[in-house]
Amino acid sequence: MNKFFIHCLILIFLSGCATIKAPPEFSYIETPTDNFTIASWQKITSPQTTYKIYIEGDGHAFNARGFPSSDPTPKGELMRELAYGDNSPNVIYLARPCQYIKSPLCSVKYWTTARFAPEVINAEYQVIKKIIGNSPVILIGFSGGAQIAELLAATTDLNITKIITIAGNLDHAAWTTYHKLPPLSDSLNAADYLTVLHNLPQIHYIGTDDKVIPPLLAHQLVEDSLIVEVPGATHHSGWQPIYPLIHAE
Predict the structure, then answer these.
(1) Domains delineated in the chain
(2) How far apart are CA 18 and CA 8, in angstroms?
(3) Which entry of 24, 83, 154, 248 is 20 to 30 Å from 140 by CA?
(4) What are the tens digits of pLDDT across the range 26-72?
């Protein structure tokens, strides 16, 4: 029995790994960091060239009744589909802490109030740095993964050449205010680093029918020239028209 199959048998019980299908060129990797072990699926065929890293969103952070879930592993497949369909030489689908694999430090706060805490950003940084070293990288973040991408750009030494966000939560303070939710009090906020991020190439895809991250939140924060509205896209569906655009980066 190979390592991936054994790991999946364990995750079937924990988080439904039986539904996860990856192309054969992608390898499942678990990377320990200071605080979390992070799951990723990696295809690396030209290590000295640009990497594209797809950062997962907040996942199944809350259940249907609005209470924090016991397991934030995502149920949607948007970011896996995007990553697995990308023919670029170096592609990584990167999970967030406590998704797919639980570390001893994992607790509800890391997919609620502390989802963008310094230790979370550091964990994502350590994984990426171990994979790419000083090579150039494009970060693609979905929903809360957009916060991760921007905070990595603002606070670390990664050689980031571009950020692409999809339905991105670019200012979680504005987002919680809009939805009348409790603030993410244990988290950093990318909106506090706009000056640092100003000169970084970036593009933000937003869905015209997204009720979770409505377009106005992006328009309030970044220049219209950096925003592309995707007609009919909701938070989790209708993004297929932009797949070729992202794959071409």
Answers:
(1) 23-247 (3.40.50.1820)
(2) 7
(3) 24
(4) 999 999 999 999 999 999 999 999 999 999 999 998 887 888 899 99
